[in-house]
Automatic annotation (TrEMBL):
It comes from Bifidobacterium canis. Its main location: cytoplasm. Homotetramer; dimer of dimers. The lineage of its organism: Bacteria, Bacillati, Actinomycetota, Actinomycetes, Bifidobacteriales. SUPFAM superfamilies: Aldolase. The record marks 51, 112 as: Part of a proton relay during catalysis. GO terms for biological process: diaminopimelate biosynthetic process; lysine biosynthetic process via diaminopimelate. Keywords: Amino-acid biosynthesis, Cytoplasm, Diaminopimelate biosynthesis, Lyase, Lysine biosynthesis, Schiff base. The active site is at residues 138, 166. This is 4-hydroxy-tetrahydrodipicolinate synthase. InterPro entries: Aldolase_TIM, DapA, DapA-like, Schiff_base-form_aldolases_AS, Schiff_base-form_aldolases_CS.
Length: 298
C-alpha cells in the first residue's frame, strides 16, 4: 500500500544555505560539501538559490555558478530559485539557471509590488514562455504580500511548464481545493505542517529543518506512505523542537547556517547584509533544539 503520489523532485528537499567566506564571497567548495552532506543525511532533492540561500543578495552569475557547483557533486534533482518582483529579471534567471543544469525552477509570486491576479498570471505566463524545465510556483503571502487565488491557480495550471507548488500559505483547507482543481503536485513549504500536508495529498516538503533532520523527515514520509500514521506522528513530534528552534524567530537563513555550524559541517556563518550571521545565543537555541530532537549527541 502506498498513500503518497510520486514525488518528481524528491520528498525531502532542504532549501539549502549558500555558504560564504569571511569576505562575503560565495564559497562554492563549501556549497559542494554541504550539498553532499545533506544528500548523505537523506535529502533526495535540493533547492538552491532560495530565500534560505540568501537569494535576495546573491547575483546572477553566483546563482548560475552555484547550480553548476552543486550539480557536479550530487545525483538528486536540483531546483533553483529564480524568482523576482521584476518579470524580465525573473525570465533571465529562469533561462540561465536551467541552462546551468537545474532540473526545475522555483518561481516566487512577485513580492512587494502586490500585483493583481491578472498580473500574477501574466508574470508566470512570461516565465512559462522562456522555460524548458518544470516551474514550481512558490506561494508565500507572508513574504510577498499577495495571495494567489483559486481561479488564478486554475489558469496557472494550464501553462505547460507549471507542474508543482511550494505552499507556504499555512492554509491547509485552501490547499485541498487548489490541488484537486488543478492537478498540480503539492509540496509543503512549512516544516511544521509537513505531516498535515501529506495527509491532504502533498508529496513532500521544501524544508529549512532538513539541514539537520533530513533522515527523520524521510522516515516520516515513508511511514505515512506505508500507512503507519502512528510512527509518522511520533517522528513529527520528535522533530518539533528542531523546527521551533530553526523557524520560530523567522530568521530561517540565519538559523540554517547555525545548524550547519553546530553540526560541525562548516565553521564560517558569514551572511550578506541585511542578514547578520548567528550570534552565540542563536547558536545555543539551535543546538538545544537539535539535541531535544535527538539530532545531536548530548
Amino acid at each position: 500500500m502506498h498513500l503518497l503520489d510520486p514525488a518528481p523532485f524528491g520528498r525531502v528537499l532542504p532549501a539549502m544555505i549558500t555558504p560564504m567566506k569571511e569576505n562575503g564571497d560565495v564559497d562554492f567548495d563549501m556549497a559542494q560539501k554541504v550539498a553532499k552532506q545533506l544528500v548523505a543525511d537523506g535529502a533526495d532533492g535540493l533547492v538552491v538559490n532560495g530565500t534560505t540561500g540568501e537569494s535576495p543578495t546573491t547575483h546572477m552569475d553566483e546563482k548560475v555558478d552555484l547550480v553548476k557547483a552543486v550539480r557536479e557533486v550530487v545525483d538528486v534533482p536540483i531546483i533553483s530559485g529564480a524568482g523576482s518582483n521584476d518579470t524580465a529579471h525573473t525570465v533571465r534567471m529562469v533561462e540561465q539557471t536551467q541552462e546551468a543544469g537545474a532540473d526545475a525552477v522555483l518561481v516566487v509570486c512577485p513580492y512587494y509590488s502586490r500585483p493583481s491576479q491578472e498580473g500574477i498570471f501574466c508574470h508566470y505566463q512570461a516565465v512559462n514562455e522562456s522555460a524548458s524545465k518544470p516551474i514550481i510556483i512558490y506561494d508565500v503571502p507572508g513574504r510577498t504580500g499577495v495571495h494567489i487565488k483559486l481561479d488564478t491557480y486554475v489558469h496557472l495550471a494550464e501553462l505547460d511548464h507549471v507542474t508543482a507548488v511550494k505552499d507556504a500559505t499555512g492554509d491547509i483547507a485552501g490547499a485541498v481545493r487548489k490541488r484537486m482543481e488543478t492537478g498540480l503536485t503539492w509540496y509543503s513549504g512549512d516544516d511544521a505542517l509537513f505531516l498535515p500536508f501529506l495527509s491532504i495529498g502533498a508529496v513532500g516538503v521544501i524544508s529549512v529543518v532538513a539541514h539537520a533532520a533530513a533522515a527523520p523527515m524521510r522516515e516520516l514520509a515513508e511511514a505515512f506512505d506505508c500507512g503507519d500514521v502512528a510512527k509518522a506522528q511520533a517522528l513529527a513530534n520528535r522533530i518539533a523542537p528542531a523546527i521551533e528552534a530553526m523557524n520560530g524567530t523567522g530568521f530561517q537563513a540565519v538559523m540554517a547556517k547555525a545548524a550547519m555550524k553546530v553540526r560541525g559541517v562548516m565553521e564560517c556563518t558569514k551572511m550578506r547584509l541585511p542578514n547578520v550571521g548567528p550570534n552565540s545565543e542563536q547558536l545555543d537555541v539551535v543546538r538545544d533544539g537539535l539535541r531535544a530532537a535527538g539530532l545531536l549527541p548530548e
